[in-house]
Amino acid sequence: MIAEIAQVAAQTAKDSISLNPINRWEWVFPLVESIHICGFTLLVGTVAVLDLRLSDLVLTRQSIAQLARALAPWIYLGIAVQFITGPYLFTASPPDYLHNPSFRMKMYFLAAALLFHFTAVRGTAGKSQPIGVGWRRLVAFVSIALWVGVMFSGLSIGFFAVND
Amino acid sequence: MSLHDAAQWLSDTQFSTALREDPYPYPVLGCIHVLSIALFGGMVAIGNLRVLGYTMRDIPVSQVIDQFRPWKWTGFAILAASGVLLMLSEPLDCYNSIFFWVSLALLALVGLNAWIFRSGIYRRVVEWDSAAIAPQQARNWAWVSLALWIALVFAGRLIAFA
After folding, report:
1. What ipTM, to 2 d.p.?
2. By CB atoms within 10 Å of each CB, which of A9, A37, A55, A151 scores lowest?
3. For chain B, how many structural domains are there in total?
């Protein structure tokens, strides 16, 4: 009985994977992935501008807090696009992704990058008394390094041939 | 020599073969290429969104655009250099890919659009610099710029597909 239920469950999971549009038409995956890259550009591009501002390297005539406020909605939009397209790409082949070392590494980097952004980066940017540029540059550097980690491990998912 | 022969010749060079067959160049170049898209594309997006009045309305347009300029050129130089190297690693695949030629055409349109903006409405930027929302002509330019860049990301990604 339990074995039968398990078998039906496994078969249903297999069927739902093959009925998924991303697996039925070969062009769906690259199209969704293109949206994922646009979302990445919006998210990491705006975060990078904030990090460069924290380092006093761009838009220095505007206050850090002012820029952080202006960029926040676009950072949220970027996160939203990524949290819709990313999980959908994952549904193409969940077991393969879970066993893919690059995918796991990407999730760790992503968790660390988001956590760091909403604590250290936002905290530093929101200070009413600006802290020294040395500390701000350190925060910006760690932030950029974490996002580069997300991107590099994300790119290398494909090198472990998830879709074959 | 036809264009196809040129691609074949490039593909047979020692440099192209090394780029294609060594395990490291392709992922490293891909990483640099996407990183420069984020650096360059993020600033393009913010600049256009400012012209459209969707962000930083209290900052003059020219301040945003002028302060981003050196970074955008840096990003573009890295983007172009890594793109050329990626093309050199697979010259024949690029020649055969419709999306490679679409990408080149879109890149030309991006350049043309930027030139039209700079030689046209942006010359009179002092007249509308502090406006929360730029004049219609400048907003049209910003929408075209955003659309071309998004299309370029799609076309670039699809080179690996067909």
Report:
1. 0.87
2. A9
3. 1
